[in-house]
Design a protein that fits this description.
By secondary structure, the chain is mostly helical. The chain is built from eleven helices and no strands. It has one domain: Tetratricopeptide repeat domain (Serine Threonine Protein Phosphatase 5, Tetratricopeptide repeat, Alpha Horseshoe). Helix 7 packs antiparallel against helix 8.
């Protein structure tokens, strides 16, 4: 993730306020703060292009929540253009944006475009030596949701089984990620007419008591956002990256994920 500690205090404050408003469901107010943060950052000479990408992503996410799909698409396109112009070393960042672009297309009912973006993002993730298996699992969970709507249930099932294995290995059997994936498998089996298998997955899902989601529910796809670490070059960042910056991930909350179209 671009080092947000380098952003001016006014920009960071506006972004934080926008996030807090979004969490409260005050989407119009959140949108205003995110646009304010971006406008402030654009007028600071020391803010490099890559540091604008998370701010543009904020606008994309809030646009999707509000149903402002054109605004969201415009923000994501600009963010992706910046990343593409910053060289081939930004594989994980490009993959994360494609994940979000796929989610937006899915929300708009453009499932073919969603599949294309999701597959492109996964392909990029697979070529990156720095890829986190959890990021890749989230990408595959999102693709599975898209494939269900395309009628590609066999591939969706294979993806979800792989995702389940990653989450169980990483978090243990009672984690929310595991429960959500079991829910997805249950939904898939139910749509396929395999009602006993669906019931078994839904019963297994009830083992979880952790309700902090980072993944996708088939019946209501979300826009979880993954921000990998990166190494901006001089053409893309006015400052050198902070070597102590930690890898971070910014996710949508469960309530936001399950109430969007």
């Amino acid at each position: 993730m671009p080092d947000q500690t380098q952003l001016p205090a006014a920009v960071a404050t506006a972004r934080l306020r926008g996030s807090q408003l979004r969490e409260k469901g005050l989407l119009s107010e959140a949108r205003r703060e995110f646009h304010r943060a971006l406008a402030l950052a654009e007028h600071v000479p020391t803010v490099g292009p890559l540091e604008l990408v998370p701010l543009l992503n904020d606008i994309g996410v809030i646009g999707k929540y509000r149903g402002d799909f054109d605004e969201a698409a415009s923000a994501y396109r600009r963010a992706l253009r910046i990343v593409n112009e910053c060289g081939s070393d930004q594989l994980d960042l490009r993959a994360s944006l494609l994940h979000n672009i796929a989610g937006l297309a899915h929300a708009r009912g453009e499932v073919a475009a969603a599949e294309s973006a999701a597959r492109e993002g996964i392909a990029l993730r697979l070529t990156s030596a720095a890829t986190d298996p959890l990021d890749l699992a989230a990408d595959r969970a999102a693709l599975a949701a898209i494939l269900v709507d395309l009628g590609e249930k066999a591939e969706a099932r294979e993806l979800l089984i792989d995702v389940l294995a990653v989450f169980e290995d990483s978090f243990g059997p009672e984690h929310y990620e595991v429960a959500v994936t079991l829910h997805n498998l249950g939904s898939l089996e139910h749509r396929s007419g395999n009602f006993e298998a669906a019931a078994a997955n839904w019963i297994a899902r009830r083992r979880s008591s952790d309700w902090h989601s980072t993944t996708t529910i088939l019946i209501s796809p979300s826009l979880s956002t993954i921000w990998p670490a990166h190494s901006p070059n001089s053409a893309c960042s006015a400052k050198q990256p902070n070597p102590s910056a930690k890898r971070s991930r910014s996710w949508q909350t469960p309530s936001q994920a399950t109430t969007q179209p």
